[in-house]
Design brief:
By secondary structure, this protein is α+β, with helices and mostly antiparallel strands. Among the domains are: 61 residues; 111 residues, Protein of unknown function DUF881 (Alpha-Beta Plaits), CATH 3.30.70.1880. It contains six helices and eight strands, in the order αααβαββββββααβ. It has a five-stranded antiparallel sheet with strand order 3-2-7-1-8, covered by helices on one side. A three-stranded antiparallel sheet has the order 4-5-6, with helices on one face. The N and C termini lie far apart (147 Å).
Length: 258
């Protein structure tokens, strides 16, 4: 006796497709009437916003009222005037700074120039420029200090600005004296030949020294000889060390002064 067949029958293809369709319809979104109306309203609102933005861009100030345009114009005018005032103030400040800087620089330059001039005249600074070279020879040592002093005075009268005798700088306080050992200038003994260097206009100094009855004529009267030459460049390098005052000091500048 055979056993009964217990194998389940194969599924029906039509039944399987029907089940899948049922599952798809269950999972598919369903738009209700309210959802459709909300979508339409959102689309209309977006369209209205875009139209309004485009209209504002195209119209610009033409859509404003007259009082609004007047207010904007007043604000622009006021701002322009404020900027112009600021620009004018900055230009004035710049002009004052430039003028002050130029004035200060000019004052410094003038002070330095005066200091240099005073240093040359006082013999504290070396100098160079056009001038003359003078050599006085006195083999018998008979030319006195007074005759040499006359040479100094003649050079000064002719406009010499810096003078050097041998290795000594000649200044306003220079003196020459006769001693048993010869001539001294400012306490320094010097011996012939006497060599002079003077800075000034050679066309004035040379004729002044050689004038009849002048300083070199007196030197020749004492048996001396002289040789003076104009030079384009004369270097006076001898300097005078000036001792600082022991008792006098400059008056302090008053805070209220100029």
């Amino acid at each position: 006796m055979s056993e009964p067949d217990t194998t389940p029958p194969p599924p029906d293809p039509g039944t399987s497709r029907s089940a899948w369709r049922t599952l798809g319809r269950a999972l598919a979104p369903r738009a209700t009437r309210a959802q459709v109306m909300a979508g339409i309203l959102c689309a209309l609102l977006g369209f209205a916003i875009v139209v309004q933005v485009q209209q504002n861009r195209s119209e610009g100030l033409s859509s404003l009222r007259q009082d609004e345009l007047v207010r904007i114009l007043d604000e622009v005018t006021q701002r322009t005037e404020e900027l112009e005032d600021q620009a004018a103030a900055l230009r004035q400040q710049r002009a004052e700074l430039v003028t002050g800087s130029d004035t200060q620089r000019a004052a410094q330059d003038a002070a330095m120039e005066r200091a240099a001039q005073q240093g040359i005249l006082a013999g504290r600074l070396p100098a160079e420029g056009p001038g003359v070279s003078l050599v006085v020879r006195d083999q018998r040592r008979e030319v006195p200090a007074l005759a040499l002093l006359n040479v100094v005075e003649e050079m000064r009268n002719a406009g010499a600005e810096a003078i050097q005798l041998n290795d000594v700088r000649v200044t306003a306080s220079t003196y020459l004296v006769d001693t048993p050992d010869g001539v001294e200038i400012d306490g320094v003994a010097i011996a012939p030949p006497y060599r002079w260097l003077a800075i000034g206009d050679p066309d004035v100094i040379v004729p002044a020294l050689n004038m009849p009855g002048g300083a070199l004529a007196v030197v020749r009267g004492y048996g001396g000889t002289s040789d003076v030459q104009p030079l384009e460049t004369v270097v006076v390098d001898a300097v005078r060390l000036v001792d600082p005052p022991q008792h006098a000091t400059p008056v302090p500048t008053s805070p209220d002064a100029g």
